[in-house]
Amino acid sequence: MWRGVTKLCKFPTRCYSDNFYSTTNALYIEQLHERWLSNPSSIHPSWQAFFSATDAGQSQAFIAPDFTKLELGEKDGTSSYVSDVLKVQLLLQGFQRYGCLIADLDPLKLTEHVISNQAEVRIPGIIRMENYKFTEQDMDREFDIGSDLITGFMKTDGPHRGKWKLRDLIERCREVYTGKIGFEFMHIPFRDECNWIKERIESDELFSNSKERKIEIFTKVAQAELLEDFFHKKFSTHKRFGMDGSETAVLALHSLIDRAIENGVDNFVIGMPHRGRLNVMANILETSLEEMFGLFYGIGYRQVEEGDVKYHLGQTMVKEIKGRTVTIRLLANPSHLEAVDPVVVGTARAIQNKQLNRSRTMAIVLHGDAALAGQGVVYETMQMEDLFDYSTGGVVHMVINNQIGFTTTPREARSGQFPTEIAKAIGAPIFHVNGDCPEEVDFVSRLAADWRSEFRGGVFIDIIGYRRYGHNELDEPLFTNPKMYQLIQKHTSILQKYTKELIDQKILDEDSVNSIKRSIIDGYEKMFAMVKLKSETKTEIKTHEREGISDVFRTGIEVPKLQELGVKLHSLPKDLKPHPQITKIYQNRLNTIEKGSGIDWATAEALAWATIMSEEKMDVRISGQDVQRGTFSHRHSVIHDQVVDRKKYIPLNHLSLNQGSFTAANSHLSEYAVLGFEHGYTLANPNSLVMWEAQFGDFVNGAQIIIDQFITSAEAKWGQESGLVLLLPHGYDGQGAEHSCARLGRFLQASSEDPYTIPDQIIKEYKQCFFNNIQVANPTTPANYFHFLRRQIKREFRKPLIVMSPKRLLRHKSAVSDLAELADDRVKRVYDDANFDGSNVSEVRKVILCSGQVYYDLIEERKKRGINNIAICRIEQLAPFPFEKVQEIGKKYSKAEFQWVQEEPLNLGAWQYVETRINTSLGGQGKHDVSVVSRPASAAAATGYLSVHNAELVALLDKSMN
């Protein structure tokens, strides 16, 4: 179980008020009371008198008095000492909670310069010394600050354990909490977690490094900074979105990964924006410098299809480190800065599921300060932190805090003092650190790795630096931020600062510094010379090609096997007490399986999953809001006992001993993050069927960035294959705009095929799907849906499949299949009209082509009117378009006119996609080019008035039948 699921804490240590007079420490008083009960002489005489008076010598649990009314420092004797101890306690807690606000975190010290629009720092009263009215004599008084509550500041000198002079305590607080690191952890409600951090940071020395470690840190910083300098000098006219000014972030990744490996991690999944990506690829993933420099010259090291800019690319490294085989993945990411966040988490979770261990794989996400505070997918992703089917045992978030967006200042970009305020929503500690201080950056990175190992929770590292060259290297930042960049121009680099520090400490001398730097630069120069020579010759661009592609695989399963699995799926344990309606549903499904007919949508889906798990031995995962039951109460893949709370039964996990696993993950109320998660899952586990289902099809547009930047284009840009299936409930039933349309036309618009050319006959259906970027289906039968799902895993390549999933057809009396259809050969991309064979084809005056549930409306209307000269044909797979199948229909009905009918408005359905492709397929056959019948073009996807909907449907059907 993860940290937040089962964590119980009797004494959450929270401190809410900025007013120190209203902040109390009942836990400290309670601990003193316990000591008094066991040994009255172990505490100060004033506390002895206090408890004697308030507790009357009784041993019952102590109830702290209301200290908000205590007159602090005003009385003599016992009350005065109690009051002063409380004030010292408040001051200590003030430093622990708010010291980060006055810590020395900004390398540029912007707040010391009057810069307009900078965020104003308000200092809470609890850390304002003037509020306490301590005198000079008080500074030399000794106070017992407690042996249990203040774990890190304890002294171990016998009976004086926990006693401090006020002057020493304040000095130590300032050293720990207002230095180059700012710690935020007092918002965590669990005492053991807070104490763990205190013990690590309140020790006698915050951190110390050996000579060897300092030299190692120096070398890492030198490699990062010198590479940025090299890029800048050699490629001065290129954008690279360098890390200049925040190079210690590379050191932070080194330190984080090193310590995590020591803690047992052997897989790392990293996501980051474009800033600093090239440096991370070179120095963390050890990408060949020859390749790195080649990216600037555009020579074809990794060009596939359209490709992508160099600072969006990913990389994977496998290497022996500290005796372990370690894999580090940097995922590709577009310029949508935080879009990769859920993809990272999904990829990490898929790896963990294969390892059967959460601790061996770590997700690391790098953020920019402006994007972290501004983009909602960050919060959506963070809410997966403790969810059963999404948790990865703690994500490490690293903020490369440039203190500016493109040109936007922090005051314009966020409402909080720090961009990391969002971390408090999940109780994650935050370590702010001055980016000019390599050793402090190293310390907090190792601390973060240890936190994640200890508590399996998220943690944030906020590296505060700057951006030396503006948003990109061709930008002029002085246009909009003159004062800031005047300071940056005068600011000494991190490497120069650290070099001076180590020379002053006699760790290095000038000769050794120059030797290290020369060695690094010589390596860069050598690789650069090789690439420059290669750039003068032409290179062939690699295309995404695959040899030996076979014909389509058979997707049918024999009827006896289907019936065997169907009986297992729908036979419930005797000790299970399901809802009576569930019992009826399962019995009805079992009856249809035994008869071999009347198979509905949910039954066909369950059989597809069962065959994948039992026959192919692959896992099946479906996620989304309410997918266990199904939004339309049709699936019921997880059955809940009505008597025993939380007892449940999942039939799909009880098929055979060596079957694949089934997961139905009810997600949190997110589309963007959850769809990104599932996409990431498919990247790491392609040999599984992974599905995401929207509550209603239109809701998918909350994840449009994931669709555009990953699902439809990742293969072309980065060579990433994904077999993710999107189920988008679609169909017009008078339920309003958001409950009708899955924006079919938007997906079809993203299809990359040529609409004007019929694929060569040698390119069969299998190859046509391989060469296209996506598949879009609008199936009308449970059997065809069954085959679409099985086709996803039978191939040796992976393509996204977008399914216009039905609503009305889930229970439509005609939308059922026989088991024989599930046993059939393969997907039916097009259904011809079975009413017309060779003898009566010549009587057909019009062929209606359609897709989806409108087919059943058309069939019913034709029957009602007794029409026998209109053929109705269904296109089940819209992308890639079945040119040859439509061509066959054109030849069959050569004398008929062709019409496309859709229930969607003219501008929102498939018409704009299919028109050209149908005409290309017909090639002049038929009386004229295909016409269209639809609802009128509309800004809203559908009407919310049932009466209007019905009138529109009547008009649509009437026009279709004429």
TrEMBL record:
Q: Name the cofactor(s) required for activity, per the record.
A: thiamine diphosphate
GO annotation terms (biological process)? tricarboxylic acid cycle
Q: Kindly give the SUPFAM superfamilies that the UniProt entry links to this protein.
A: Thiamin diphosphate-binding fold (THDP-binding)
Q: Name one GO cellular component term.
A: oxoglutarate dehydrogenase complex
Give the stretches traversing the membrane.
none
The cross-references to Pfam families, in alphabetical order and at most eight, read: 2-oxogl_dehyd_N, E1_dh, OxoGdeHyase_C, Transket_pyr
What EC number(s) is this enzyme filed under? 1.2.4.2
A GO molecular function annotation here is:
thiamine pyrophosphate binding
- List the SMART domains hit by this protein, alphabetically: Transket_pyr
Which residues are in the Transketolase-like pyrimidine-binding domain? 599-812
Which keywords describe this protein according to UniProt? Answer: Oxidoreductase, Thiamine pyrophosphate
Similarity comment text for this entry:
Belongs to the alpha-ketoglutarate dehydrogenase family.
Q: Which NCBIfam families would you find in this protein's record?
A: 2oxo_dh_E1 (TIGR00239), PRK09404.1 (NF006914), PRK12270.1 (NF008907)
Functional summary from the UniProt entry: The 2-oxoglutarate dehydrogenase complex catalyzes the overall conversion of 2-oxoglutarate to succinyl-CoA and CO(2). It contains multiple copies of three enzymatic components: 2-oxoglutarate dehydrogenase (E1), dihydrolipoamide succinyltransferase (E2) and lipoamide dehydrogenase (E3).
Q: What is this protein called?
A: 2-oxoglutarate dehydrogenase, mitochondrial
The taxonomy runs:
Eukaryota, Sar, Alveolata, Ciliophora, Postciliodesmatophora
